[in-house]
Write a structure and sequence with these properties.
Distance between the termini of chain A: 38 Å
Number of strands of chain B: 9
Number of helices of chain B: 8
Oligomer: heterodimer
Largest sheet of chain B: 5 strands, mixed
Distance between the termini of chain B: 18 Å
Number of strands of chain A: 9
Helix content of chain A: 25-40%
Structural class of chain A: alpha/beta
Shape of chain A: globular
Low-confidence stretches of chain B: none
Mean pLDDT of chain A: 92
Order of helices and strands of chain A: EHEHHEEEHEHEHEHEH
Low-confidence stretches of chain A: none
Number of domains of chain A: 1
Largest sheet of chain A: 5 strands, mixed, barrel
CATH class of chain A: Alpha Beta
Helix content of chain B: 25-40%
CATH architecture of chain A: Alpha-Beta Barrel
Strand order of the largest sheet of chain B: 2-1-3-8-9
Strand content of chain B: 15-25%
Radius of gyration of chain A: 18 Å
CATH topology of chain A: fumarase
Radius of gyration of chain B: 19 Å
CATH superfamily of chain A: Fe-S hydro-lyase, tartrate dehydratase beta-type, catalytic domain
Amino acid sequence: MSVKELTVPISEDAVRSLHVGDTVRLSGVIVTGRDAAHKYMIETFVHPSKGAGQGSLAVPEGERAVYRELKRLLRESVIYHCGPVVRQRDDGRWEFVAAGPTTSIREEAYEPDIIEHFGLRGVIGKGGMGPNTLRACREYGAAYFHAVGGAASLIADAVQEVVTVYKKDAFGVPEAFWVIRLEDFPLVVTMDTHGKSIHDQVEAASKAALDRLIGN
Amino acid sequence: MDNLTEPFVELIRRAATDLPSDVEAALRDARDREASGSAAEGALNTILENVAIARQNDTPICQDTGVPIFTIHVPRAGREGCASTQALRDQIEAAVAKATEQAYLRPNAVDPVTGRNSGNNLGEGFPSFHFQEWDEDYLRVDLLLKGGGSENVSTQVKLPHAPLDAGRDLDGVRKVVLDAVYQAQGKGCAPGVLGIAIGSDRGGGYVHAKEQFLRPLDDTNPQPALAELEERLLRECNELGIGPMGFGGKTTVFGVKIGAYHRLPACYFVSIAYMCWACRRAAMTVHAEEVTFQ
């Protein structure tokens, strides 16, 4: 199986050429975000409180700078479901010590809107996501990239640089938006833009085995 | 020994940065069984490579260093080697904070009311302590690092469970366990280990289920009926074909350990704790002044 090289910014053509089962090495600047980050993005940016105005005007003033940066960083990039272990060096810069993926399905309620709103080309995580994200992948041109859960030290080696971090004080280290530059991050495409999901396939096969084993 | 804080930091470091040898060997066997060139084989190769890097770099195997669960056996009060459990708790808490500062542990303790992370892995009920007196004349501390992703796919089922036609017997237990593994798919970071408790109340069931993770993978359950069920479930869970990370494959679980506690007449709980492939356990004993790590 050949390995495909992918670099941020990822074009729509590049992501639409991927298929489930493809092995990918990803390089470039991406952003981590998990539970608190998704909830925050939806409530603060995507569907800001009603009556506060339209579009970005509804975003509270104190959050607009972060919004601008995230919009710039996430367009044609990917969000990584990850809560890292970090270390601050003597010169004040951060480094990733351990950085494996966290379970993605918790973000299913948020992800389709985030893919659309920010123009994401993909999501990195583990465990796969549901039908709404799969639909968003097809509609807006994005893929789900599966990292190996728990392979934190190996993945930390692929993180070349921590560029910056947003919302660390508010959300804590694991939940913050860490902006990182990757080189050759090993991934498997498990949901593609063609409506295919390895997770659906394995689930269907294991359901048949389960029914046989418990005699249903 | 007056103060065990430093040995406790070392215990945490060992648990976070290395795997027990039986676990690593089981993962290697699993890798060798998967089809050459498959995504499953690739995932297990990545896992094994990651373990080697973590050991070499002295960094956590997984970024989710979990909830640290300490099981402490102390000699009976008055016996040689007995210790104040409060003093041990204080020293372990100091060690947890220090290990967090040294990035062996990720700050994982979040206040559910305010949403604030305490930053040092200390909080109400965090880490988790289980003290027990025993008749030996030395102290034993077992540490389990239990990750959150696999915690989320753990489950507790009340028998009888009509949807699966699972009754109040060991076959009913078998059915709900298989269903739990099916429900988990790859989301608990398969291949995993199952710790199962039959009986008890709801709280005690989960505690006993997690105690099963302290057993070596190759031990034999002293109760023949449970030993047989462990073996059968190991085989049948793997027939589900979920495989490493849920990519499909031959190994979905590499250990099934079952304990049984007496239950109330009205209740029959099956508590199923799922441990990810990073089955991180470490132990230390303290004989007089001598600290030994297992």
